[in-house]
């Protein structure tokens, strides 16, 4: 794969730029973004997807990345270091690095995972998720448009016979539509249904790879689902069947993990009827598992904040709080922290003695430590004795290599 042969680049001199001293330092230390307001010199206007070469203040090669004139993140850095040509061999090794990083993570009972995690794998603005025999490419920047055929070609060399689906972030959908590409396009092969069945530690799930959130499923919570299942299994072994609440349940991932672990009753709580129907389908396709088949699965369509605060809410042995992002911008951070505290406070009240609360956050504007401390604070205020069992961050296939990529965190507390 060569990134030097787009028509626009063949007719123009190489796009060159220099940055502010602060931005130069960030790139030298490995940060993958160059913002528009940090560019001090640029030899010409660039087009989406061409290579931009960055030089330092001494006119030495610093980095090279994909240019995006439509985004405040003007350059997504592909490589920084000694001078390097991004030829076909480089791109092949670049992809192999991401693929090999996952090679030892999953056995045959897990066929859903992140294959390329954007900037943290050196593919800024691009992720690839695998769902059984389907690869879903999601683009967050128009800069990948000229390179998309080459990306697909590289992937198919390693995943022969796979189907490929394209997903697009909202900010680039209109621009890409003008070039004939749309969110949910099937680029390679044919899908008989947008719902693709895959496995996660032996549990079957459906992923709507054409219209679903993210790339079709919340793969990033896989390890927390495994942990919840393990904890519920130990609780069941100690004193029989348990009642589990999965709040903000979406398609029932935590619910299924608890049911397979032997929970007598599992409640999936979500405001979305569509999400609860998906959870019911996921339970149905796992009916061959005796534990899942024997677990009573209830679905409740309601606002979680209102439902948890209801006097009629029954006590549970395990409560999972996994809300969507409550702080989409920095200005919402304090409000989000109060919301996390309120949710945890209401959940603690509804935990039986010996019960466990798992509270999670996917808000990048809320740091892990301030989230953990917010939950610990309401736990202390509850006047119940509690133990902190563990905290978790990103799953290994969703690793984060710079601050802005850090978003996922969870804390587990057991109450007497």
What is the tally of helical segments?
12
Give me the count of strands.
Answer: 20
Biggest sheet descriptor: 7 strands, mixed
Strand content: 25-35%
Q: Going by CATH, what is the homologous superfamily of the largest domain?
A: Vaccinia Virus protein VP39
CATH topology of the largest domain: Rossmann fold
- Average the pLDDT over all residues and give the rounded result: 95
Low-confidence stretches: 1-5
Structural class: alpha/beta
What shape does the CA trace take? globular
CATH architecture of the largest domain: 3-Layer(aba) Sandwich
Strand order in the largest sheet: 16-15-14-17-18-20-19
Terminal-residue CA separation:
59 Å
| Fraction of residues in H or I helices | 25-40%
Structure report:
The chain has 416 residues and is of the alpha/beta class. It has 3 domains: 7-80, Archaeosine Trna-guanine Transglycosylase, Chain: A, domain 4 (Roll), CATH 2.30.130; 88-208, 2-Layer Sandwich (Transcription Regulator spoIIAA); 219-415, Vaccinia Virus protein VP39 (Rossmann fold). The protein is built from 12 helices and 20 strands. It has helices spanning 7-11, 21-28, 88-102, 148-158, 170-177, 222-239, 253-260, 273-285, 290-294, 304-308, 333-349, 368-381, and strands spanning 15-19, 33-35, 39-42, 51-55, 61-67, 73-80, 112-117, 126-131, 134-139, 163-168, 186-188, 195-200, 203-208, 243-247, 265-270, 296-301, 316-321, 351-361, 386-392, 409-415. The strands form 4 sheets. Strands 16-15-14-17-18-20-19 form a 7-stranded mixed β-sheet, with helices on both faces. A 6-stranded mixed β-sheet has the order 2-6-5-4-1-3. Strand 8 (126-131) and strand 9 form a beta hairpin. The termini are far apart. The model is unreliable at 1-5 (pLDDT under 50).
């Amino acid at each position: 794969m060569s990134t030097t042969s787009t028509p626009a680049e063949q007719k123009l001199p190489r796009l060159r730029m220099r940055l502010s001293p602060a931005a130069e330092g960030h790139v030298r230390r490995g940060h993958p973004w160059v913002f528009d307001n940090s560019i001090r010199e640029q030899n010409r206007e660039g087009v989406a997807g061409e290579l931009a070469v960055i030089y330092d203040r001494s006119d030495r090669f610093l980095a090279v990345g994909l240019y995006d004139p439509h985004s405040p993140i003007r350059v997504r850095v592909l490589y920084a270091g000694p001078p390097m040509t991004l030829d076909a061999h480089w791109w092949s090794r670049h992809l192999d690095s991401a693929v090999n990083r996952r090679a030892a993570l999953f056995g045959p009972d897990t066929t859903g995972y992140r294959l390329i995690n954007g900037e943290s794998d050196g593919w800024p603005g691009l992720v690839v998720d695998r769902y059984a025999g389907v690869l879903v490419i999601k683009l967050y920047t128009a800069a990948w448009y000229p390179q998309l055929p080459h990306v697909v070609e590289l992937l198919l060399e390693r995943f022969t016979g796979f189907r490929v689906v394209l997903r697009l972030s909202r900010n680039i959908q209109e621009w890409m539509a003008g070039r004939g590409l749309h969110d949910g396009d099937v680029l390679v092969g044919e899908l008989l249904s947008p719902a693709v069945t895959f496995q996660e530690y032996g549990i079957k799930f459906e992923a709507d790879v054409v219209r679903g959130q993210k790339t079709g499923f919340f793969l990033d919570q896989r390890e927390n689902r495994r942990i919840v299942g393990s904890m519920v299994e130990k609780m069941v072994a100690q004193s029989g069947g348990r009642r589990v609440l999965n709040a903000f349940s979406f398609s029932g991932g935590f619910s299924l993990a608890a049911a397979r672990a032997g929970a007598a009753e599992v409640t999936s709580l979500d405001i979305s009827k569509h999400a609860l129907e998906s959870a019911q389908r996921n339970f149905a396709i796992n009916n061959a598992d005796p534990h899942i088949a024997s677990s009573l699965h209830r679905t409740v369509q309601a606002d979680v904040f209102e439902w948890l605060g209801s006097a009629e809410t029954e006590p549970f042995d395990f409560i999972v709080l996994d809300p969507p992002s409550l702080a989409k911008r920095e200005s919402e951070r304090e409000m989000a922290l109060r919301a996390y505290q309120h949710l945890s406070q209401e959940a603690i009240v509804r935990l039986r003695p010996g019960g466990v609360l798992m509270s999670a956050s996917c808000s990048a504007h809320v740091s892990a430590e301030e989230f953990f401390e917010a939950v610990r604070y309401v736990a202390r205020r509850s006047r119940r004795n509690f133990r902190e069992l563990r905290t978790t961050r990103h799953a290994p296939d969703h690793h984060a290599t710079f601050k802005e990529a850090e978003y996922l965190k969870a804390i587990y507390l057991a109450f007497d």
